[in-house]
Amino acid sequence: MLRPRIIPCLLVHQRGLVKxxxxxxxxxxxxxINAVKIFNEKEADELVVLDIDATVEGKEPDxxxxxxxxxxxxxxxxxxGGVRTVEQAKRIIGLGVEKVAISSAAISNSSFVTDVSDAIxxxxxAVVIDxxxxxxxxxxxxxVCTHNGRKVHKVNPVDLALEMQKAGAGEVVINSIDNDGHxxxxxxxxxxxxxxxxxxxxxxxGGCGKLEDIEKxxxxxxxxxxxxxxxxxxxxxxxxxxxxYPNSELKDKICMSGLATYAEK
Length: 265
Hints:
By secondary structure, this protein is α/β, with parallel strands linked by helices.
């Protein structure tokens, strides 16, 4: 039976674990390997690791770091950052990673998604779409951004997600730049819209601040990936650094309650 997934998302900057707010001002919060070890103990459903330097700086993926992460990780691992060629994607999968996340290279050329999907399997390809609400008196809707939000693409996020699905993406990840790091809740409207349109697995990221946000996301979208960064690395009103994750009983309760509400709609 398919069920919602609760997925910590770790951001790596200069090989350290960081947290951002609206993709800016990365704050160091620890060592990625130590975080992976703790999430192993807590039996997280999956883990996403995104290198936020690689694409912006035009660097190769850090294969040594990826190898260490994959060797330590006892849950499905998705890595993203700097993947621009099929050979890079194949090498990452060969290191023991289950899924490769691609963003700017996919958005620039959807056939790249097809090539990667053909090489490593559709189930191993996740396309990350970073979205930001348009601003201005006469502006509405969303923009798609890459390069840590610095480059704007004139394309509708839903149209892009459908294009990525058609091209061969096995999963689409929608990441809200506006909500990133604020811990005020997901963009539920965007999540619901994407869930209605897409036929492939969907993961939502950006803004989760409490477990109730995860339950609300499931009640809005049903079976969905609920990803979060700040929620799983901070604790309390002063955001003390503490790696945390719900235990199995609480996780099941959140998922079942959310699915029950979704079924009633």
